[in-house]
Amino acid sequence: MEEFEVKRGSTKDLASRIPIELSRHFGCEPEPAGDGYAIACGAIRRLIATPGPGGKTLRVEIETDPSIEDDAVILATIRKRNAFLEAATGFSSKERVKRSKKKAVE
Fold it and tell me: Residue 18 belongs to what domain range?
């Protein structure tokens, strides 16, 4: 499970934005799963996205499908995941890496 910080100002409606962003970026309808939403698309067997405590973080649990060997499908899935995370958190992949490294040092 990964946990990503959410940009200030984007935390208020995070729980309601998760299904919208999943649907928009992955092109399939998310289904409710506990406190969050789940999808299965491309090289992802199951992705569960839930708001973290206080709605200030986004928790994402991903189970990939190792049987998929088509590089185009894998790359498209990675792009969709990154686009979803950027839309949901407000941070680009480069900013997310910086923040996670900074948090790991603390």
Answer: 2-105
Q: Where are the alpha helices (DSSP H) in the chain?
A: 14-26, 71-89, 93-105
Distance CA 62, CA 40 (A): 10
CATH code at 100?
3.30.310.190
Q: What is the pTM of this model?
A: 0.91
Number of domains in the chain: 1
pLDDT per residue, tens digit, the chain (106 aa), is: 899 999 988 888 999 999 999 999 999 999 999 899 999 999 999 999 999 988 899 999 999 999 999 999 999 999 999 999 999 999 998 999 998 888 888 7
